[in-house]
Specification:
This protein is mainly beta and 204 residues long. It is built from one helix and 17 strands. 39% of the residues are buried. The model has no long low-confidence stretch (mean pLDDT 94).
């Protein structure tokens, strides 16, 4: 099974063409709360995601407890996915607890790849995943490279002006709460960091 976004031959419109010479407006899959079951397995995702908040290849958005705690006798999982040449992250876990992400590969993507978003997410398990070639994106200051950091001042907290060092944080595994389990994962070729445990003062 392949999920593939339909894109144009080059960048257009207000899609940050000053940074990208290709179209970054792909498809996205968003899973919201109160679903019966979600089990994604053996799927290829390519040309997915957008340089827009909330539009990622695989996005669990405020889904709450998706394991036994939430009443699921078959806990929710993402397994054996191939996520490559995508335009915003790989797997985003936002306001979601108890998700299993396993045996998944993210390759050549923009912005933090495996992304635990706000710092409230707990009991998620990331096991035996691989992330390769995580490149800069525009969404958050921590997603940006030096050039983007100098020229963009949006998506910052309050009136804070990020320094260049704030923007040197593109990370393959961005972990925002210590009560999540990472085992047997590997990262290589990220612009800045492979695995980063960072605990927020404010939600992303």
């Amino acid at each position: 099974i392949r999920f593939q976004g339909e894109v144009q031959d080059s960048c257009y419109g207000d899609n940050y063409c000053q940074f990208f010479d290709y179209d970054t407006y792909g498809g996205h899959v968003k899973i919201l709360q109160r679903f019966k079951n979600v089990h994604l397995s053996g799927i290829e995702f390519t040309r997915m995601g957008q340089q827009v908040l909330g539009a990622y290849p695989v996005h669990f958005h405020l889904a709450g407890d998706v394991d036994e705690v939430g009443g699921y006798t078959r806990p929710t999982y993402v397994r054996e996915l191939s996520i490559h040449h995508c335009f915003s992250r790989c797997v985003t876990i936002h306001g979601t607890h108890g998700l299993l992400v396993q045996d998944t590969v993210g390759y050549d993507t923009l912005g933090h790849c495996y992304f635990i978003e706000d710092g409230v997410e707990q009991r998620n398990v990331l096991d035996h995943n691989l992330g390769l070639v995580t490149r800069a994106g525009t969404l958050l200051p921590t997603d940006r490279d030096d050039n983007m950091c100098r020229s963009m001042r949006d998506a910052v907290y309050g009136d804070y002006v990020p320094s260049t060092s704030d923007c040197r944080a593109v990370t393959t595994f961005w972990i925002a709460h210590p009560n999540n389990v990472l085992t047997n994962n590997a990262a290589a070729g990220s612009l800045h960091t492979g695995i980063w445990y960072i605990f927020h003062r404010e939600p992303t």
